[in-house]
Amino acid sequence: MSQDTATTPTSSAVPAEQPAKNKPWQVITASLVGTSIEFYDFYVYATAASLVFPALFFPSDDHVTALLASFAVFGVAFIARPIGSIVFGHFGDRIGRKGTLVGTLLVMGIATFLIGLLPTAANADGSINANMTVLAPTLLVILRFCQGLGLGGEWSGAALLATENAPANKRAIYGTFPQLGAPIGFILGNTLFVILNFTLTNDQFMTWGWRIPFLLSAVLVIVGLWVRIQLTETPAFQKVQAEDHVVKAPLVEVFRHSWRAIVLGTFVMVATYVLFYMMTSFMLTYGSTPTTEQAAATAAESGTAFDASTYVGGLGYPKTEFLLMLIVGVVFFGLFTLISGPLAERFGRKKMLISVTILIFIFGFAMTPLLSLGHTGVQAQLIIGMALMGLTFGPMGAVLPEYFPANTRYTGSAIAYNMSSVIGAGIAPTVFVALWSFGDGSPFWVGVYLSGAAVLTLIALFFSNETKHYDYSNDSAA
């Protein structure tokens, strides 16, 4: 979709010599390992935002208020992500994909490591650290912002690394490898939380155990850097350089020639983002929050007052048990991400995504009935939602880059991806908690919100073109 007509970009120029290429295993490993590390970092925070940070950084007598504060900071990264997409997109289109991807990994990794060293506003026993009630949350906000900057530039670079090195007619398949970083990172981060919950007491976990996943990110970053430094630049960017089509201001160029692609790409991913953060961040909170009956019984045992009229109950699962159920669902996320690539190649990106988005619309209304069916229904809801997530998320690694010409592809796809994150995910956790509270403990309105997001995505897909046959080898500039 170069130019504002939403048609795919083409060019008849052919380079004088064949650009150097990375080996398939290098491409797959670098795109997969890098995004796995990035998403591990991101999800470690998401899990802590639900399980730990409300008590340690935002202590309050009202658990809903603490949750809202924690998720508000979670949303700070989504404000930073479009900024990161502009900054790293500029360098990705000016100096190349390889060097920029090293930078995104360092920014994300260092910020995550430092979160593990932060002082807290409250202690595990609930006592308040008077000198840290402002400083601790402020430092958390700053580092969360840095996390968002790194991830804002990471995804697009990893997607381009995979698809710009892909053989003909296999871009959607190669594009699923960076997408696999999402389920792999989630499983790594949350499995570690489960292990810590099994091996540490609650006091140990709340005092220092929660820091371990953040500190371990340093090891993962070193591995990711080693893999990425071995790469050569992608053939598409080498071609841009060889033909002297590198632009001085990618941001200006992409909005001048591909503004319509940015708008459509943004809304094509909205339902994907809403679904994912509903299935992870919200469901972890909803699933592990005690029911009204459980909360009343706990209050009675401790002799504290309990007002059932203001309490918003959840499913009442122990946190570790629900994390394990969620991890089972994420396995299906990974499997269906792999399946989505061949499907997008066979049927085309547009047809496949329209079909999956219709299923997401239906799922939004089916969610509450499924959750009412007991343990089996809850696990089924997690599996179905995550399977749909894999089918809609997998093709995006190819779809969004295909909307833009090579010399502004990093910037364009990054902006569309991250603007979608602001609209679809930045406010989603907070909105989910508010809708859950509004529904007196029922997630019905959360499901309605998901279905509404699916409608927006269907409209964007209707106005988008099929990009399956877009030829990267004949493209270097707008």
Automatic annotation (TrEMBL):
Residues 27-468 form the Major facilitator superfamily (MFS) profile domain. Pfam families: Sugar_tr. SUPFAM superfamilies: MFS general substrate transporter. It is a multi-pass membrane protein. CDD domains: MFS_ShiA_like. It is found in: Cell membrane. The chain crosses the membrane at residues 66-89, 101-122, 180-200, 212-229, 261-279, 322-340, 352-371, 383-404, 416-438, 444-463. Its main location: membrane. Keywords: Cell membrane, Membrane, Transmembrane, Transmembrane helix, Transport. This is MFS transporter. The lineage of its organism: Bacteria, Bacillati, Actinomycetota, Actinomycetes, Micrococcales.
